[in-house]
Amino acid sequence: MEDKRINNIKEYRSFCKENNLPIFFNDWWLDAVSKDKWNVCIYKKNNDIIGCMPYIESKKIIFSLIKMPPLTSGLGPIIIYPTDAKYASKLGIDKKVCEYFISELPKFDNLTLRFFNTFTNWLPFYWKGFKQTTRYTYILKDIANPELIFNNFRDKTRNEIRKAEKKLTIEITDDINAFYKLNIAIFKRQNIPIPYSFELVKRIDDACKKRNCRSIYFAKDTEGNIHASAYIIWDSSCAYYLMSGANTEFRNSGGVSLVLWNAIKDSSKKVKSFDFEGSMIEPIERFVRAFNAEQVTYHKITKTNSVILKLFKFFTNRE
Fold it and tell me: What is the pTM of this model?
């Protein structure tokens, strides 16, 4: 089994080099967020890879888990369709490939995956006993004209940005330490511990910096205080608002809106779209929605095989 995993990963690394994939699917990203804990299902036809599904294996106490890596918005199936495939044929390919993926997964007690928003057909997983929850992100699908984008922001957001521009300046920095301190403050304000370590963020930053696919934005005042920050990554087609930070002393300065606006303007020179990464938390959703981004659904897929975990979820009313 280990030999097969090593061979699959080797083939997947070659596949990544030959294809423009969303950033979260790249082998180097998986290396950064999970070290050596990732694996991949591969489906071939005529010795060509037409489907892949990377995932993370983990152990917690006695339980075997398949889960999402941290700071990764979506994974799930990637399928390469024939250029002349009709819609009905694509659905048939989805069924065949996904059924193979399911059969290739190692035994697990619990599985949680979030499908990337471009893969919408979760029916093959439903037929195999998996459950689904609809989740949302917000995407500006065409940022080629920043002026038009700005004019479509809510009035309150535009005014907030104009006000912030008079008092704050934008700095693009490599200071990941200062960024992480501001990132911690976001969670501290909600009275929850930050769910990932500085070591993880540093690995991601090193990997993205090496490939020139990240920018860290600070909004600073004349005294050098950092009001807000944004960590932006991108692939060949889309930029992603991966992480944010804010100084609670200046939460009403408009700094967060200002760094996002500058990130959108800069991203328009590199990619076609901008993904706010969404949120199911109501105040965050309300803030993101004000940028007039389009609400886009994606699927959270789960399955529990362990009787113990099933009972635990039943009595605690958890997914």
Answer: 0.94
